[in-house]
Amino acid sequence: MNKNVKPLRIAGVGYCVPDTVITNDDLTKLYDTSDEWIFTRTGIKERRIVSGNENAVDLGLKAAQNALGKSNIKVEDIDCVIAASSAPPQLYPSLACQIQAGLDIPNHIPAFDMTAACSGLIYALQVARGFIGSGLYKNILLVAADNNSRLVDWEDRGTSILFGDGAGAMVVTEAEDGIDDILSLDIKSDGKIGQYIYMNLPGKNCPLVEPCDEVDAKIHMAGRDVYKFVVTTLPDFIDECVKNSGLTAEEIDYLIPHQANQRIIEAMQSRLKYSDEKVISNIKYYGNTSAASIPIALVEGVQKGKIKLGSTALLCGFGAGMTWGGAVLRLREGIC
Ligand code: ACO
Question: Taking the complete model, does pTM exceed 0.90, yes or no?
Answer without folding.
Answer: yes
